[in-house]
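Summary for the funding panel

The consortium committed to producing paired sequence-structure records for every protein in the target list. Below we show the first two records in order, beginning with the earlier of the two.
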Amino acid sequence: MLAALLLCSFAFSQELFVVKSSEKYGIVNENGVVVIPTTHNSIGNLQKITKDWSKVQIDSLYGIINKKGGIAVEAQYEEIGDFDEYKKGWALVKQNGKYGFINNKGREVVATAYDSIGKFDEHTKGLILVDANGLKGLIDKDGNIAISVKYSSIEKYGQTRKGWALVKNKEAKFGFIDADGKEVVPVIYDDIDSFREKPEEATEAHSVE
């Protein structure tokens, strides 16, 4: 027995239907062409996320269908966020409990390898903080690793000195890195405090009788 239910037409150039056969679900278009075969336990409603794309839930995972009813992104993610929230043309995705990014061509531009991902420019311009297995690093706006994911903490740049960030490694040693990731002060110290003279102390130290 085959049953059909109208799924969505407003987001597409043609209507799509959820179909059910032998207790399994799929999607066909208005011409009867199979878009998604009837092999799935459930198919959720389409949610428009760009001008030409809509998110669809298949079983417990999400993918993306284009306006012609074709598969733009296979249903392989536990979550697909909104495009342009982090960077124009990018959407945050979650797979196997890890986060990454896809672009508006459906390509994974940052691998789903991170436990958490911050926001661009929070730590320094053009970079975003990522965390994997308790270690932190920074990636750039092309999706490349700018600062290796090897520090237990990375302070925001410019907190102590312009262009520098205080870092701590997994052995709890401190140092400084620059914007290129170079360790300008070796990460070998138990603690680092910025030395700043208080105005009154400086006046007393430099006064002449």
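The next record, for a separate protein in the list, is shown here:
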Amino acid sequence: MSHGLDRLLGQARIISVGDCESIQEILERHNKSMWVHFSPFLVSYSLPPRRSLYLLEVEGSLVLIQVNVRNGETRTDLLFLPVPYTDKINSWLTTLPEIVGQEDVRIIWVDEEEISQLRLGFDENLAWDEKGVEYIYEPEKVWSMEGSEFRDMRKRVRKAEKNFPDFMDLSVEDISECQELLKKWRSVQGRKNSFLLDWGYTRAALNDFHRFAAENLYGWCVKIQGNVEAFALAGPMNEDTANFFVAKTNPEVSGLSEYLRWKVLGELRAFSYVNDAGDLGIPGLRQHKMKMRPTQLKKTFTATLLTEVQKGSCKLRLV
């Protein structure tokens, strides 16, 4: 770890459940609504010592620093653009690669508007790649499942209903069964998609479920014949938008994945929109999420702040 990074982290602290409300308030005040802008995810994503998320205030802005340690090497990046993004924080960002002793620093989640802001501040010292799209739903529309466009969705839900599923609020007593289901899900899906990484933060969120305030993180499970076969976590990002954080089902129960999402979106009808994250580039997941007819596909990017050394070797991607 460089001396600069060591000094920087000395001013920061690792994120914790107790930070949820203050972080969400800042993100809401500044109209941040990418899927990453959900404080229970941020807390669960921090998995020290291999991946730690540090909370820091710089020039009046919220900064989340991700420190990855792998094979003895340390890599430092920002999870998202500091909030708010100001001229003062822009000046600090220009020095960040040097501070942490790297040739570049990534900002892992950035939207189109933020790319435009960064281009003004960094010009040729900025590169970016499209990360994917986030699926934005109108929960009332999905819940009603009206019209021919929802025909396949209705069929899948009705198929699952033949198993007489019991949809209910998640309780602490259900967590151990949810963890066992997560292991089963990983053993099946992990063989198909070895890069899937969400099991780590899902496991952490389940472990800490009892520590989150009920108004910050909602939970449900589906039981069939008394056994937990699916579970989901979600919560508010702001008054209009909820975050669909986690959805895991027993892949052996046909239609259960559609049934779970339909029921959870029904529970979130107090919100105008629900951000259901991306599809990881997996065709089957993309097909599944398109069944619910998203209102918007929100583009996201990963930006890279370059030093003069790196600038000449990186191809810039233009929006």
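Regarding this second record: The chain has twelve helices and twelve strands. Residues 139-294 form a domain with the Aminopeptidase fold (CATH 3.40.630.30).
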